[in-house]
Amino acid sequence: MKTRLRFKIIATLICLSLAGLLISQGYWLKGLYVSNKKSTWEKIEESMRMADYMELFLRLDSLSQNNYHDEISPKISISRDTDWEDKKDSLSQDQTISSPPGTTVQYIAAAQTLKEYLQMISTMERGVQIMMHQKIDSLLPIDYTQYKNLLQIELQKRGIAAPFVLQVIRQGATDSVIYTGGDSIYRKQPWKNMVCFTHTIEPEQYYYSLKLPSPDRIVFRQMAGILTSSFLLIVIILIAFIYLLYTILRQKTIEELKTDFTNNMTHELKTPISVAYAANDVLLNYSDTTNEKQKKYLNIVREQLNHLSGLVEQILTLSVENRNTFRLRPEPILVLELLIPLIEQFKLKTDRPINLTTEIPAKLVVTADRTHLYNMLSNLIGNAIKYSGEKPCRVTIKGAVSPKETVLSVTDEGIGISETNLKRIFDKFYRVPNGNLHDVKGFGLGLYYVHDMMSKHGGSVTVKSQPGKGSTFSLHFKN
Hints:
13 helices, membrane, single chain, transferase, alpha+beta, transmembrane, five-stranded mixed beta sheet, phosphoprotein, two-component regulatory system, Heat Shock Protein 90, 479 residues
């Protein structure tokens, strides 16, 4: 896989992950906001109700101290709720629970669920609170300033520290404000997007009106810790993402520089290798003054030059293959015609007897890039010879055609490959450990090249091997 493609895949995956994180974080924060907003509204309503209770009880205590207790207790009665009364007809007699002696209230078991039961209790409680207002207000007027102070305390208990304006509004043909207290700034310039809550003092008479600034401001202030931590987390992830992209780009640049250096170095090496090879060939074959000892050393030099030339060609091939401009030039190739000169070349440059046999149909044709097919077969035959061990070197090259594919295989009777190493032999720079065998040279690029080129041809390479019995490498070309 090309470096540029890998970079695009990594960048895309990171962007998708970051987008997914932001979406999930936003969805979670939105749900938390809705939940906190609902909870805040309930706390405000509860604060108004509790402050009203506290103000009532303070006035009731004051009346009790002034001997008004006898006037209050006998005259407070609790009547049945009209909504409950409507439900009486649909209930059986055993659902009506009689009140304790001395009271005038009947508790009707109209609630079929827990929610209805809680609503019934809340309605009863609200009725008691209104009736207490009716009696206590007739004896001692409401202290609005005290209610405002109690309301502020209740709001602060519930974590709602925001400016507010409290008004008492009398209902009628035209509602009139009979009390205003709280934030003085509001009186000069009303808040934008303010929210208003009401709490009835006496039905159809007057009620408390509580005004607060934008509800979002209150909720966001409560969520400040979560929002700050979420923001910091996103910033850290963004910084890590940018740094990762910077590192990848830097590594990409380094790899490109390395590739350019390899290309230039190998191209420069080809010239002195060619000159040294030509000079060595002249001294070895066309000089009458060369003795046997000199020929021996010249042969060694030629072998090493051949080895070095092969390595340079292999590195060049891999370098070209990794370029973006790399393109295959497939053409119909008569396999036997390509193999004959390749086999002769190996017989000439190998310093040991080898038996290379071919079982290729005379008209077997493969559609492939001629240069790369030549290099792949050369790598496989070269490996078969190198790893033949101490046995006589026998290499068989076969070809077979089926409706789906054409297979070219190279079989040797050498040292073989263990099952553990078979999994990695096509990895770049991987070489099979050979114990004390040090005479096999190479960099582990040959099989990697074969595997990569077969992949580019749309085919595959497979291997079967048994330690001590040899190996078979097969090239599979799709028809």
